[in-house]
Design brief:
Radius of gyration: 15 Å
Order of helices and strands: HEEHEEEEH
Strand content: 15-25%
Shape: globular
Number of strands: 6
Number of helices: 3
Structural class: alpha+beta
Length: 152
């Protein structure tokens, strides 16, 4: 283990773990029951009209199985992103994203709706602010998944 994550793990235990380890395995999530914290360390991307109101409106849509497969392919190619749990029957998947230097974990959940819409929720495990990291992550995911789907 690198020195900085090891030192940080004295205060932030999950920084001392690799991959998705060190965090409880999530169960299936009802994405319509997301409770956004007052802190500015989350980002939500979802179709227009979704509640709670998303930070990013996704226009990604299509056959739900095709969209879900595109999400899984995209995520599999990302550095510092680790599969944490998958509920394929719900087209929902959970990841842990780690910062390269300090190994701070963020949680990312993706779900494809029965209509083929894309919902992404990214949030920090530690800290009050994320310096825009979660929003930037979802902007990149939405753009990349949209590009992949437009090629099909």
């Amino acid at each position: 283990m690198r020195l900085l994550p090891m030192l940080l793990s004295l205060v932030y235990p999950a920084c001392g773990s690799d991959g998705a380890a060190g965090l409880p395995v999530p169960g299936p999530m009802d994405m319509r029951r997301i409770e956004r914290p007052a802190s500015p360390n989350t980002a939500l991307a979802a179709p227009s009209g979704f509640a709670p109101a998303p930070d990013i409106v996704t226009s990604v849509s299509g056959d739900p199985d095709v969209v879900y497969a595109a999400v899984r392919r995209f995520a599999a190619g990302q550095d510092h992103l680790f599969l944490h749990a998958a509920f394929d029957d719900r087209r929902q998947v959970h990841f842990v994203a780690r910062t390269p230097t300090a190994n701070f974990p963020d949680l990312v959940t993706a779900q494809v709706t029965p209509e083929g819409g894309l919902i992404l929720w990214s949030r920090s495990v530690y800290g009050r602010s994320d310096f825009g990291v979660n929003r930037a992550r979802l902007d990149a995911w939405v753009a990349a998944i949209g590009r992949e789907l437009s090629r099909n």
